[in-house]
Design a protein that fits this description.
about 280 residues, 8-stranded parallel β-barrel, 8 strands, about 40% helix, binds 3-methyl-2-oxobutanoic acid
């Protein structure tokens, strides 16, 4: 990671300046607990609306509300001292007009203290990105697979396989960059397209299911640590299997409680060490 001063919060200006430099290390975080654990390792924490699926068990991100994003954004800000924290704008909070987007994004900035917001979309969102950026709200774009548009697109399949679709996504990326976004996520595209976008735009690209050529990478933390196991997309690399460990721990606890092996007297108040008797 590029930051030499662990106590200084990484800003969107620092992120923007990393174009073509050392890769940006990014992860999602939804809670203060996770933010504390991740903070020293990452440049950027995204409070992604993927929390709707990962934490709340929703089928898509469409039902996530602005209040949910603000509550989780504020929690992550309480846990992270160093990383640049960006909060996702949920579906329905920014598409209607640039003014509505400003009001919703201003709430996110005031009520969470985050450094900026992320919103999905390309050419159709360029005017809004410019409106927000010029009025003090840093915006991270998001092109390629857009989970909030899954009902129109008909699923979570990868994007940019036809020339027509690849050209449209390239146009989206250029529009987001030209509108003043400080960085953009490229999600779920064919690799050569993500590589070409990274070469074409002036702002850092942060890939997820995109390309090693991107200026940074992001994964959903629960995927990375093996906590979210409903499905495993091709682009996920698991670095731990915490889901299995948690299930094993709960099973061991259940057996101990059933057999009166927990709590032991060492877990009880008012018992002198070594004087207790354990019931078997
Ligand atoms: O919501 C989210 O977590 C995201 C990342 C997958 C980039 O948008």
């Amino acid at each position: 990671m590029g930051n030499e001063q662990p106590d200084k919060r990484i800003t969107v200006v620092d992120i923007r300046a990393r174009k073509g430099g050392e890769p940006l290390v990014c992860l999602t975080a939804y809670t203060a607990l996770t933010a504390v654990l991740l903070d020293e390792h990452v440049d950027l924490l995204l409070v992604g609306d993927s929390l709707g699926m990962v934490l709340y068990g929703l089928e898509t991100t469409v039902a996530v509300s602005l209040d949910m994003m603000i509550a989780h954004g504020a929690a992550v800000m309480r846990g992270a001292n160093r990383a640049c924290v960006i909060v996702d704008m949920p579906f329905g909070s920014y598409q209607e007009s640039r003014e509505a987007a400003f009001r919703a994004a201003a709430r996110v900035m005031k009520e969470t203290g985050a450094a900026g917001v992320k919103l999905e979309g390309g050419t159709e969102m360029a005017e809004t990105i410019e409106f927000l950026s010029r009025r003090g709200i840093p915006v991270m774009g998001h092109v390629g697979l857009l989970p909030q548009s899954v009902n129109v697109a008909g699923g979570f399949h990868s994007r940019g396989r036809s020339k027509r679709e690849a050209d449209a996504i390239m146009a989206d990326a250029r529009a987001v960059s030209d509108a003043g976004a400080f960085a953009m996520v490229i999600e779920g595209t064919v690799e050569p397209l993500a590589r070409a976008i990274t070469e074409a735009v002036e702002i850092p690209t942060i890939g997820i299911g995109a390309s090693p050529a991107c200026d940074g990478q992001i994964l959903v933390t629960e995927d990375l640590v093996g906590l979210f196991s409903q499905f495993k997309p091709k682009f996920v690399k698991r670095y731990a299997e915490l889901g299995g460990q948690i299930s094993d721990a709960a099973g061991a606890y259940a057996r101990d409680v059933s057999r009166r092996r927990f709590p032991g007297l060492e877990h009880c108040y008012g018992v002198k060490p070594g004087k207790g008797r354990r019931d078997g």
